[in-house]
Amino acid sequence: MGILKTLKRKFLKFNNSFSNNLKISNENIIITGANSGIGFNLVKILGKCENNILALVNYNDDEIISVKNENINIIKCNFSNPENINNYSDKIKNFKPSILINCAAIFGPENQNFNDIIIKEFNTIMNINVLAPLTLIQNSLKGKSLKQVVNISSLMGSMSNCNGDFYLYRSSKSLLNSITKNISFDIDQKINIFCLHPGDVKTKMNTGGLISPEIAAQKIINICSQNNLNYRGKFIDTNGNILSW
Ligand SMILES: NC(=O)c1ccc[n+]([C@@H]2O[C@H](COP(=O)([O-])OP(=O)(O)OC[C@H]3O[C@@H](n4cnc5c(N)ncnc54)[C@H](OP(=O)(O)O)[C@@H]3O)[C@@H](O)[C@H]2O)c1
Protein backbone atom coordinates (compact mmCIF):
# COMPACT_ATOMS: atom_id res chain seq x y z
CA MET A 1 0.00 0.00 0.00
CA GLY A 2 1.40 3.43 -0.94
CA ILE A 3 2.27 6.00 1.70
CA LEU A 4 -0.47 8.33 0.46
CA LYS A 5 -3.15 5.66 0.82
CA THR A 6 -1.90 4.77 4.31
CA LEU A 7 -2.03 8.43 5.35
CA LYS A 8 -5.50 8.81 3.85
CA ARG A 9 -6.73 5.78 5.80
CA LYS A 10 -5.24 7.15 9.03
CA PHE A 11 -6.83 10.56 8.39
CA LEU A 12 -10.20 8.97 7.69
CA LYS A 13 -9.92 6.81 10.80
CA PHE A 14 -9.26 9.94 12.85
CA ASN A 15 -11.98 11.89 11.07
CA ASN A 16 -14.45 9.07 11.57
CA SER A 17 -14.03 8.78 15.30
CA PHE A 18 -17.22 10.01 16.85
CA SER A 19 -17.93 9.87 20.52
CA ASN A 20 -21.70 9.68 20.65
CA ASN A 21 -23.64 7.02 18.83
CA LEU A 22 -26.99 8.76 18.90
CA LYS A 23 -30.15 6.71 18.73
CA ILE A 24 -33.50 6.92 16.98
CA SER A 25 -36.33 4.90 18.50
CA ASN A 26 -40.10 4.41 18.19
CA GLU A 27 -40.22 5.77 14.65
CA ASN A 28 -41.71 4.32 11.48
CA ILE A 29 -38.84 4.33 9.02
CA ILE A 30 -38.71 3.50 5.31
CA ILE A 31 -35.28 2.49 4.03
CA THR A 32 -34.55 1.62 0.40
CA GLY A 33 -31.58 -0.36 -0.85
CA ALA A 34 -32.12 -2.26 2.36
CA ASN A 35 -30.46 -5.57 1.56
CA SER A 36 -26.89 -4.37 1.15
CA GLY A 37 -24.26 -1.80 2.01
CA ILE A 38 -25.32 1.36 3.80
CA GLY A 39 -29.06 0.62 3.57
CA PHE A 40 -28.67 -2.80 5.16
CA ASN A 41 -26.59 -1.40 8.03
CA LEU A 42 -29.20 1.31 8.62
CA VAL A 43 -31.87 -1.41 8.86
CA LYS A 44 -29.74 -3.50 11.21
CA ILE A 45 -28.93 -0.65 13.61
CA LEU A 46 -32.34 1.06 13.55
CA GLY A 47 -34.16 -2.28 13.85
CA LYS A 48 -32.50 -2.87 17.24
CA CYS A 49 -34.00 0.32 18.72
CA GLU A 50 -37.73 -0.41 18.67
CA ASN A 51 -38.33 1.23 15.33
CA ASN A 52 -40.72 -0.17 12.76
CA ILE A 53 -38.89 -0.55 9.50
CA LEU A 54 -40.34 -0.87 6.02
CA ALA A 55 -37.39 -2.21 4.09
CA LEU A 56 -37.53 -1.86 0.31
CA VAL A 57 -35.35 -4.22 -1.68
CA ASN A 58 -34.96 -5.08 -5.32
CA TYR A 59 -35.10 -8.91 -5.55
CA ASN A 60 -32.80 -10.17 -2.81
CA ASP A 61 -33.83 -10.06 0.84
CA ASP A 62 -31.46 -12.72 2.22
CA GLU A 63 -29.40 -10.31 4.35
CA ILE A 64 -32.45 -8.70 5.96
CA ILE A 65 -34.08 -12.05 6.66
CA SER A 66 -30.89 -13.11 8.45
CA VAL A 67 -31.41 -10.22 10.91
CA LYS A 68 -34.55 -11.98 12.25
CA ASN A 69 -36.42 -8.95 13.55
CA GLU A 70 -40.22 -8.92 13.50
CA ASN A 71 -40.26 -5.10 13.38
CA ILE A 72 -38.83 -5.23 9.89
CA ASN A 73 -41.28 -5.57 7.01
CA ILE A 74 -39.97 -6.19 3.53
CA ILE A 75 -41.31 -4.96 0.20
CA LYS A 76 -39.74 -6.30 -2.98
CA CYS A 77 -39.91 -3.63 -5.64
CA ASN A 78 -37.77 -3.02 -8.68
CA PHE A 79 -37.14 0.71 -9.05
CA SER A 80 -36.11 0.50 -12.69
CA ASN A 81 -39.79 1.22 -13.25
CA PRO A 82 -40.67 3.76 -10.50
CA GLU A 83 -44.37 3.18 -11.12
CA ASN A 84 -43.91 -0.20 -9.43
CA ILE A 85 -43.80 1.80 -6.19
CA ASN A 86 -47.36 2.98 -6.70
CA ASN A 87 -48.51 -0.65 -6.34
CA TYR A 88 -47.60 -0.26 -2.65
CA SER A 89 -49.23 3.16 -2.16
CA ASP A 90 -51.73 1.95 0.44
CA LYS A 91 -49.13 -0.05 2.34
CA ILE A 92 -46.80 2.97 2.47
CA LYS A 93 -49.60 5.37 3.44
CA ASN A 94 -50.88 3.07 6.20
CA PHE A 95 -47.35 2.54 7.52
CA LYS A 96 -47.35 6.28 8.33
CA PRO A 97 -43.62 6.79 7.84
CA SER A 98 -41.99 9.47 9.98
CA ILE A 99 -38.56 9.05 8.37
CA LEU A 100 -37.73 8.11 4.77
CA ILE A 101 -34.16 7.25 3.83
CA ASN A 102 -33.71 6.93 0.07
CA CYS A 103 -30.57 4.85 -0.20
CA ALA A 104 -31.05 2.57 -3.22
CA ALA A 105 -29.06 3.48 -6.30
CA ILE A 106 -26.91 2.02 -9.03
CA PHE A 107 -23.61 3.37 -10.30
CA GLY A 108 -24.40 2.34 -13.87
CA PRO A 109 -22.02 0.87 -16.43
CA GLU A 110 -18.28 0.97 -15.85
CA ASN A 111 -17.75 2.98 -19.01
CA GLN A 112 -19.57 6.30 -18.75
CA ASN A 113 -17.36 8.31 -21.08
CA PHE A 114 -18.79 11.17 -23.10
CA ASN A 115 -18.48 9.17 -26.34
CA ASP A 116 -20.04 6.01 -24.96
CA ILE A 117 -23.26 7.22 -23.39
CA ILE A 118 -26.11 4.77 -23.95
CA ILE A 119 -29.45 6.51 -23.61
CA LYS A 120 -31.30 3.38 -22.47
CA GLU A 121 -28.87 3.04 -19.56
CA PHE A 122 -29.21 6.76 -18.83
CA ASN A 123 -32.98 6.26 -18.53
CA THR A 124 -32.55 3.28 -16.21
CA ILE A 125 -30.21 5.10 -13.81
CA MET A 126 -32.53 8.12 -13.74
CA ASN A 127 -35.46 5.85 -12.86
CA ILE A 128 -33.62 4.12 -10.02
CA ASN A 129 -31.58 7.01 -8.59
CA VAL A 130 -34.02 9.90 -9.06
CA LEU A 131 -37.58 9.06 -10.06
CA ALA A 132 -37.95 6.19 -7.58
CA PRO A 133 -36.93 8.42 -4.60
CA LEU A 134 -39.29 11.11 -5.91
CA THR A 135 -42.19 8.64 -6.17
CA LEU A 136 -41.45 7.34 -2.68
CA ILE A 137 -41.51 10.85 -1.24
CA GLN A 138 -44.91 11.45 -2.89
CA ASN A 139 -46.29 8.20 -1.46
CA SER A 140 -44.75 8.72 1.99
CA LEU A 141 -46.31 12.17 2.32
CA LYS A 142 -49.75 10.55 2.05
CA GLY A 143 -49.21 8.99 5.48
CA LYS A 144 -49.24 12.55 6.90
CA SER A 145 -46.61 11.68 9.53
CA LEU A 146 -43.42 12.48 7.68
CA LYS A 147 -40.83 14.43 9.68
CA GLN A 148 -37.63 13.73 7.79
CA VAL A 149 -36.47 12.71 4.30
CA VAL A 150 -32.83 11.82 3.73
CA ASN A 151 -31.83 11.40 0.10
CA ILE A 152 -28.48 9.64 -0.05
CA SER A 153 -26.64 11.47 -2.78
CA SER A 154 -22.98 11.71 -3.72
CA LEU A 155 -20.28 14.32 -3.96
CA MET A 156 -19.93 13.07 -7.54
CA GLY A 157 -23.20 14.87 -8.24
CA SER A 158 -21.86 18.20 -6.98
CA MET A 159 -21.38 20.71 -9.81
CA SER A 160 -18.31 22.11 -8.02
CA ASN A 161 -16.81 18.64 -7.95
CA CYS A 162 -17.55 17.97 -11.63
CA ASN A 163 -14.40 17.21 -13.62
CA GLY A 164 -15.53 15.04 -16.50
CA ASP A 165 -16.55 11.41 -17.11
CA PHE A 166 -19.15 9.35 -15.22
CA TYR A 167 -22.02 11.12 -17.00
CA LEU A 168 -24.78 8.79 -15.87
CA TYR A 169 -24.03 8.57 -12.16
CA ARG A 170 -22.99 12.20 -11.79
CA SER A 171 -26.05 13.61 -13.51
CA SER A 172 -28.44 11.27 -11.66
CA LYS A 173 -27.12 12.55 -8.32
CA SER A 174 -27.12 16.19 -9.55
CA LEU A 175 -30.78 15.82 -10.46
CA LEU A 176 -31.55 14.16 -7.13
CA ASN A 177 -29.93 17.18 -5.44
CA SER A 178 -31.91 19.61 -7.57
CA ILE A 179 -35.22 17.84 -6.97
CA THR A 180 -34.55 17.65 -3.23
CA LYS A 181 -34.00 21.39 -3.00
CA ASN A 182 -37.08 22.05 -5.13
CA ILE A 183 -39.28 19.79 -2.98
CA SER A 184 -38.10 21.64 0.13
CA PHE A 185 -40.10 24.65 -1.09
CA ASP A 186 -43.24 22.67 -1.88
CA ILE A 187 -43.83 20.58 1.23
CA ASP A 188 -44.63 21.39 4.84
CA GLN A 189 -41.71 23.48 6.12
CA LYS A 190 -41.52 21.31 9.24
CA ILE A 191 -40.47 18.28 7.17
CA ASN A 192 -36.69 18.15 7.16
CA ILE A 193 -35.63 17.12 3.65
CA PHE A 194 -31.97 17.09 2.61
CA CYS A 195 -29.32 15.30 0.56
CA LEU A 196 -26.43 13.53 2.24
CA HIS A 197 -23.08 12.33 0.92
CA PRO A 198 -22.20 9.19 2.92
CA GLY A 199 -18.43 9.34 2.32
CA ASP A 200 -16.14 6.84 0.64
CA VAL A 201 -17.82 3.66 1.88
CA LYS A 202 -16.79 0.06 1.25
CA THR A 203 -19.85 -1.56 -0.33
CA LYS A 204 -20.89 -3.53 -3.39
CA MET A 205 -21.00 -0.23 -5.29
CA ASN A 206 -17.57 0.90 -4.09
CA THR A 207 -15.41 -2.10 -3.25
CA GLY A 208 -12.37 0.12 -2.64
CA GLY A 209 -14.18 2.34 -0.13
CA LEU A 210 -12.29 3.42 2.98
CA ILE A 211 -15.12 3.63 5.53
CA SER A 212 -17.11 0.63 6.75
CA PRO A 213 -20.83 0.66 5.94
CA GLU A 214 -21.59 0.22 9.68
CA ILE A 215 -19.78 3.48 10.50
CA ALA A 216 -21.39 5.29 7.57
CA ALA A 217 -24.84 4.08 8.69
CA GLN A 218 -24.25 5.12 12.31
CA LYS A 219 -23.10 8.56 11.19
CA ILE A 220 -26.24 8.96 9.08
CA ILE A 221 -28.31 7.95 12.12
CA ASN A 222 -26.44 10.52 14.24
CA ILE A 223 -27.40 13.19 11.70
CA CYS A 224 -31.05 12.02 11.56
CA SER A 225 -31.35 11.88 15.34
CA GLN A 226 -30.61 15.63 15.51
CA ASN A 227 -33.35 16.44 12.98
CA ASN A 228 -31.55 19.75 12.50
CA LEU A 229 -33.68 22.06 10.35
CA ASN A 230 -30.51 23.94 9.30
CA TYR A 231 -29.95 21.00 6.94
CA ARG A 232 -33.35 21.50 5.28
CA GLY A 233 -33.03 21.92 1.49
CA LYS A 234 -29.25 21.47 1.77
CA PHE A 235 -26.56 18.98 0.75
CA ILE A 236 -24.49 17.78 3.70
CA ASP A 237 -21.85 15.24 4.63
CA THR A 238 -22.01 12.81 7.56
CA ASN A 239 -20.40 15.38 9.87
CA GLY A 240 -23.16 17.89 9.10
CA ASN A 241 -20.94 20.12 6.94
CA ILE A 242 -22.86 21.89 4.18
CA LEU A 243 -21.58 20.82 0.74
CA SER A 244 -21.70 22.86 -2.42
CA TRP A 245 -24.36 21.85 -4.95
N1 LIG B 1 -20.36 3.52 -1.23
C1 LIG B 1 -19.95 4.77 -1.46
O1 LIG B 1 -18.74 5.09 -1.36
C2 LIG B 1 -20.95 5.82 -1.82
C3 LIG B 1 -20.46 7.13 -2.06
C4 LIG B 1 -21.39 8.11 -2.37
C5 LIG B 1 -22.72 7.80 -2.43
N2 LIG B 1 -23.16 6.52 -2.21
C6 LIG B 1 -24.59 6.26 -2.26
O2 LIG B 1 -24.97 5.50 -1.14
C7 LIG B 1 -26.16 4.76 -1.42
C8 LIG B 1 -26.02 3.32 -0.97
O3 LIG B 1 -25.08 2.66 -1.81
P1 LIG B 1 -24.09 1.55 -1.26
O4 LIG B 1 -22.75 2.10 -1.32
O5 LIG B 1 -24.59 1.00 0.04
O6 LIG B 1 -24.16 0.45 -2.42
P2 LIG B 1 -24.96 -0.91 -2.58
O7 LIG B 1 -24.61 -1.88 -1.52
O8 LIG B 1 -24.73 -1.32 -3.99
O9 LIG B 1 -26.47 -0.47 -2.37
C9 LIG B 1 -27.31 -0.07 -3.39
C10 LIG B 1 -28.66 -0.70 -3.15
O10 LIG B 1 -29.58 -0.25 -4.16
C11 LIG B 1 -30.38 -1.35 -4.53
N3 LIG B 1 -30.89 -1.26 -5.90
C12 LIG B 1 -30.15 -1.21 -7.03
N4 LIG B 1 -30.96 -1.26 -8.10
C13 LIG B 1 -32.22 -1.33 -7.63
C14 LIG B 1 -33.48 -1.43 -8.26
N5 LIG B 1 -33.61 -1.50 -9.59
N6 LIG B 1 -34.60 -1.47 -7.48
C15 LIG B 1 -34.49 -1.42 -6.13
N7 LIG B 1 -33.31 -1.35 -5.47
C16 LIG B 1 -32.19 -1.32 -6.22
C17 LIG B 1 -29.42 -2.54 -4.48
O11 LIG B 1 -30.16 -3.74 -4.40
P3 LIG B 1 -29.71 -5.00 -5.31
O12 LIG B 1 -28.23 -5.05 -5.25
O13 LIG B 1 -30.39 -6.18 -4.69
O14 LIG B 1 -30.22 -4.70 -6.69
C18 LIG B 1 -28.60 -2.23 -3.25
O15 LIG B 1 -29.17 -2.80 -2.09
C19 LIG B 1 -26.39 4.95 -2.92
O16 LIG B 1 -27.35 5.96 -3.11
C20 LIG B 1 -25.04 5.43 -3.43
O17 LIG B 1 -25.17 6.18 -4.62
C21 LIG B 1 -22.29 5.53 -1.90
Radius of gyration: 17 Å
Give the neighbour order of strands across the main sheet: 3-2-1-4-5-6-7
Q: Could you tell me the number of beta strands?
A: 7
Q: Pairing-aware structural class of the strands and helices?
A: alpha/beta
- Indicate the overall shape: globular
Name the poorly predicted regions. none
Top-tier CATH class: Alpha Beta
Q: Give the CATH superfamily.
A: NAD(P)-binding Rossmann-like Domain
Please summarize the sheet with the most strands: 7 strands, parallel
The hetero molecules present are: NADP nicotinamide-adenine-dinucleotide phosphate
Number of H/I helices: 7
N-C termini distance: 33 Å
CATH architectural arrangement: 3-Layer(aba) Sandwich
Which descriptors would you attach to this protein?
245 residues, Rossmann fold, 38% helix
What does this protein structure show overall?
The chain has helices at residues 3-15, 37-47, 62-67, 89-95, 119-141, 167-186, 213-226; strands at 28-32, 52-57, 72-76, 99-102, 148-152, 192-197, 235-237. By secondary structure, the chain is α/β, with parallel strands linked by helices. The two termini are 33 Å apart. The mean pLDDT is 93. The site of NADP nicotinamide-adenine-dinucleotide phosphate has 29 residues, from helix 2.
